[in-house]
Design goal:
The chain has about 375 residues and is of the alpha+beta class. The protein has helices at about 15-25, 25-35, 40-45, 80-95, 120-130, 130-135, 140-145, 180-195, 230-250, 250-270, 275-285, 325, 330-335, 340-365, 370-380; strands at about 60-65, 70-75, 100, 105-115, 150-160, 165-170, 200-205, 215-220, 285-290, 290, 295-300, 305-315. Strands 3-8-12-11 form a four-stranded antiparallel β-sheet. Strands 5-6-4-7 form a four-stranded antiparallel β-sheet. Strands 1-2 form a two-stranded antiparallel sheet. The radius of gyration is 23 Å and the shape is globular.
């Protein structure tokens, strides 16, 4: 069993004391944290027209228990109160066993836009050769194939008057998978053209990730929800009413879901993953015919003693490839916190999003968001506090 991450007063420690608590004495990590893991030459190689690196606060949130296991959660954010909210929500959930999480399938989907006079006949030709076409692509990425990934299958997407959209599903293992999916799609394009006589115009992945749903759930003791002079029972009922408001009103649902992304995107950024891909995947999943919907669902136990919150959203996160591997600080943190598999990282991010959501709704149902949020803002801006 890993050491318990529930540490009262963790926020009162100095940064060096927190690092020692989480990582032990590690001079190499100390040096990386001192520089943020970047230097001017590294930054210049990674992105165009660089002037220099820009640092953001890198935090580790305590109190998390995920699938029965204590975990530290890495977070990178510019906004005061996000890390504190995650730690607070995690502490509430830990009282009932913590978060139960399950990562979705690590599958990315590339789309190919095939312009052809007879889309139905074109798909019939493609479908007859689908297995062989997929098999021909596998050798293009032997490293992905060796880790259980690679092209999986072809599927018919949308059909228009003179266009056929072909979907190529790719198992991405521990990679986020965008580059792999695009590489396979570009290799597939000339094969589809030769087979159908059509012309492939667009070939690129979709950031929707409908098969990559990660789920997280937690229960909260009602009596522990008392806040701002309001009883736990009253806060619980207000939290349920706030959840129903988001279900009925897309304008409220936007901010409701943003509170979840506060935590998820902080983990995404701290692990050098693609924040825009994660944000768009979540938004696409939340969109319905009536507008944006809540990513979470709330209920109360039969005996009334606990609130239950469940979360489901696609999380295209990886622990290999790109900056996740190239950035020395990120790599060391992932190794030290045992977040080297994409599934564990997705579970951790989902738990963090749910923890932020719990804390936000509890504050909103109690004395309001601004009391704690602005107090933290004031403390950050006053160096004597």
């Amino acid at each position: 069993m890993r050491p318990d991450t529930r540490r009262p007063g963790f926020h009162r420690l100095t940064p060096s004391e927190r690092r020692a608590t989480v990582f032990g004495e590690d001079p190499a990590l100390e040096a990386l944290f001192a520089s943020g893991g970047w230097d001017a030459d590294f930054a210049d190689r990674w992105v165009e027209d660089v002037l220099g690196p820009l640092a953001l606060p890198f935090s580790v949130a305590p109190n998390f228990v995920i699938n029965g296991e204590p975990r530290w959660v890495p977070m990178c954010t510019e906004e005061p109160s996000v890390v504190a909210a995650a730690a607070h929500g995690a502490r509430l959930a830990a009282a009932c066993g913590g978060f139960v999480c399950e990562a979705g399938e690590a599958v990315a989907t590339a789309q190919l836009q095939l312009v052809v006079s007879d889309p139905a006949a074109a798909w019939a030709s493609i479908e007859a050769r689908a297995d062989a076409l997929v098999a021909e692509l596998a050798p293009l990425d032997p490293a992905l194939f060796a880790h259980g990934g690679g092209p999986e299958r072809l599927e018919r997407g949308a059909v228009f008057a003179d266009e056929l959209i072909v979907h190529l599903h790719v198992r991405t293992a521990d990679a986020m998978g965008a580059n792999a999916a695009n590489t396979f799609a570009e290799a597939l394009a000339p094969r589809l053209e030769a087979l159908t006589g059509g012309a492939v115009i667009g070939r690129i992945l979709t950031n929707a990730y409908p098969r990559r749903l990660t789920r997280a759930a937690a229960e909260l003791p009602v009596e522990a929800l008392a806040h701002g002079g309001i009883s736990g029972e009253a806060v619980a009922e207000r939290m349920l009413r706030l959840a129903r408001w988001a279900e009925r009103d897309p304008l409220r649902a936007v901010t409701h879901d943003k509170g979840i992304l506060n935590g998820i995107l902080a983990v995404t950024l701290a692990t050098a993953n693609d924040t825009r891909a994660v944000a768009m995947a979540a938004a696409a999943h939340a969109c319905g015919p009536g507008g944006l919907r809540p990513l979470s669902a709330w209920s109360r136990s039969a005996d009334g003693a606990r609130l239950r919150c469940e979360l489901a959203l696609p999380l295209p996160l990886g622990t290999v490839g790109g900056l996740t591997v190239a950035h020395p600080l990120v790599r060391r943190v992932l190794e030290a916190l045992d977040l080297t598999s994409a599934a564990r990282l997705c579970e951790t991010a989902a738990a963090c999003g749910l923890a932020n959501h719990v804390a936000a709704l509890r504050a909103l149902a109690g004395e309001g968001i601004q009391a704690g949020h602005m107090a933290l803002h004031a403390r950050k801006q006053d160096p004597t506090s």
